[in-house]
Amino acid sequence: MERKLVLLPQPIEEEAVDVLRAAGLELVTAPEPKPDVVAPLLKGARAIVLRTGIKITRELLEKADELVTISRTGAGVDNVDLDAAAEKGILVTSSLGVNTSSVVEHALALMMALFKQLPLMDREMRGGNFNIRYKNLPADLREKTLGLVGFGRIGSTLAKICHDGFNMRIVAFDEYLPESAKASYSGWVEFVSAGEVARRADVVSVHIPLTGETKHFFNAAFFKKMKKSAFLLNTSRGEVVLEADLIQALKDGVIAGAGLDVFENEPLKPDNGLLAMKNVILTPHTAALTAECVVRMAVSGAQRVIEVFEGKIPENIANPKALEHPRWKR
User: Fold this and answer.
1) How far apart are CA 39 and CA 195, in angstroms?
2) Mean pLDDT of the chain
3) Residue 131 shares a structural domain with residue 228
């Protein structure tokens, strides 16, 4: 019987472990998600179920002699060298879509906390300033304009909730969304340029992946186009925002505030300027890390590994060129 070894660079949820073991797969878990620890464990591994603690580089892939698939438990695949994997015929998949509701809830929570000034209200109450209520600082979401940069599963779901629940106007930019798909939102979503989203939105929510084209997409030029009263939300990837420019924009009052779940460098260093700002809400890349969502993502990752071993083409292949490799011709 062919040995089917699955490498876990980090532990995954027991529910996903049970799925893999029930399929008769052999598991090995790395003591630490470090390249020098993981590298020798790659020999003989036919699959990796991958979290975010390590990047699978070209150098690591050179150590993999039997690897056929890398299955990300999350939606992003920026911690895998996709080109190197494709060259070796290694399918890289993600749990794209599994975390949609959790991330949407998180983005909505950040939005509401900023509009309602919840951190400020909490601080003032604890300091004995009950009279802060008379300054009428919170604002309504109702009939404000939500701007989306990226209109995939997460962006479109957030837009629907805000439109239906708060009668918000929706403007969006997504250069990859087909015209036929855009037409399906006719009547309640207006697709415009990124600059127009910046100019018109009361809150801009970021939902684009990190690529060579999107790195530092949000920079000083973008922030200068935004309203001074507007907020920026980012539950996508930290490096799509040029953090130094954002910090300066927040200091100078170019925009009113931000709600950030992701950052250019994680974890934040103690001297990061964001930590001292009272007009920013910071969360530690937890939008998808709810008790329920981590199980869904891990189980989905495990199931895709099994599908590959069963000779099926799994969902959400991030490097379809890998299918051109001779190992998949049969």
Assistant:
1) 45
2) 97
3) yes
CB within 8 A of 59, min separation 6: which ones?
35
Q: What is the DSSP string of 156-169?
A: HHHHHHHHHHH--E
**Residue 237 annotated as catalytic:** yes
- Classify 72 as helix, strand or coil: strand
Is the confidence at residue 236, as pLDDT, over 50?
yes
Rounded-to-integer distance, Cα 242 and Cα 68, Å: 36
User: Are 227 and 244 contained in the same domain?
Assistant: yes
Catalytic-role residue among 51, 200, 207, 237:
237
- Domain enclosing residue 150, as ranges: 100-282
Measured distance CA(35)–CA(81) in Å, rounded: 14
- Please, where are the H alpha helices in 23-99? 35-38, 58-61, 82-87
What's the structural domain count of the chain? 2
Same domain, 114 and 199: yes
Catalytic residue among 163, 199, 285, 325: 285
Q: Which of 62, 266, 324, 327 is catalytic?
A: 266
Torsion of CA 206, 176, 105, 101, to 10 degrees: -150
| pLDDT score of 1 | 47
Phi, psi of 111 (to 5 degrees): -60, -50
Same domain, yes or no, for 40 and 55?
A: yes
Q: What is the pTM of this model?
A: 0.90
CATH (domain of 168): 3.40.50.720
Are residue 38 and residue 114 in the same domain, yes or no? no
List pLDDT tens digits, range 5-28.
999 999 999 999 999 999 999 999
Residue 278 and residue 234 in one domain: yes
Write down how long the chain is.
330
199 is catalytic: no
Separation between Cα atoms, residue 312 and residue 27, nearest integer Å: 21
State the DSSP H helix or E strand holding residue 292, giving kind and residue range, or none if neither.
helix 291-309
Supply the Cα-derived Rg of the chain in whole angstroms: 22
